[in-house]
Amino acid sequence: MSNRAVLEVIALDEQDAVAAQTGGADRLELVTDMAADGLTPSGAGFAAIRAAVDIPLRVMLRLTDGFSAGGPEGVDALVTRAADLREAGADEFVLGFLTPDGEPDLVAVERLIAVLDGCRWTFHRAIDRAADRDGLRKGLADLPGLDTYLTAGSATGVDDGLATLKAEAARAGEPGYEARILVGGGLRLDHLPELRAAGLDAFHIGGAARPEGWTAPVSADAVRTWREAVDAPLGS
């Protein structure tokens, strides 16, 4: 991947993936069942998308709606799915689980990253529901492979999270703040100038890539519009 700002697009199938790559996406987040806010795709689904495009793919590890890993049985199921996806060739992932108290579920996360065996991964928007964002970041800081946080800065979206996103960007490189911030969750084009001026350089879109809604495929033209906006010189 080049040094330009990262544009990641949610893909549900090969058609989405091809359109997103055509529009200029740098990376895809692979999920299924957006009615449950994005769950783990099958190994066959991953393989079909991997054969269709040549950009990096991050695969969601999440079997139920919400941010619970589902207890010991749920974690066992996630570990099995992760192992199957690794066997199918997946080498980048997205995951994140909280306890009922809003603390990071380190048992679930550590079991999964043991299976991932050094693969790069994103801790997703569970951070926006955490009881203590700073504590979560510091608690996860030394876990192998963690290189990204997908966050809106707030559980209610980027509109309410702008101040948090900018404050965290200003702490880049501090303990717990080494991972890249990938901004997503209610992200709009008009947010980009302020975010980019604050040094944020990675952006995640789902519905914004589908002007006709989630029942329609990704639009290459919509992705291209985002690509051009992300790449535009500051102040233009």
Summarize the structure.
The mean pLDDT is 96.
Task: Give an overview in words.
The structure is a single chain. The protein has 236 residues and is of the alpha/beta class. The protein contains 8 helices and 8 strands. The chain has an 8-stranded parallel sheet, with helices on one face. It is globular. The two termini are 25 Å apart. This is Copper homeostasis protein cutC homolog. Belongs to the CutC family. InterPro entries: CutC-like, CutC-like_dom_sf.
Protein traits:
single chain, 236 residues, alpha/beta, 8-stranded parallel beta sheet, 8 helices, 8 strands, 37% helix, 15% strand, globular
Silhouette: globular
**DSSP helix fraction:** 25-40%
Order of helices and strands: EHEHEHEHEHEHEHEH
Portion in strands: 15-25%
How many β-strand stretches?
A: 8
Q: What is the residue-mean pLDDT, rounded to a whole number?
A: 96
Distance between the termini: 25 Å
- Computed CA radius of gyration, to the nearest angstrom: 17 Å
Strands ordered across the widest β-sheet: 7-6-5-4-3-2-1-8
**Number of distinct helices:** 8
Alpha-beta content class = alpha/beta
Poorly predicted runs = none
Largest sheet: 8 strands, parallel
InterPro entries: CutC-like (IPR005627), CutC-like_dom_sf (IPR036822)
Pfam family, one: CutC
Protein name: Copper homeostasis protein cutC homolog
Family: Belongs to the CutC family.
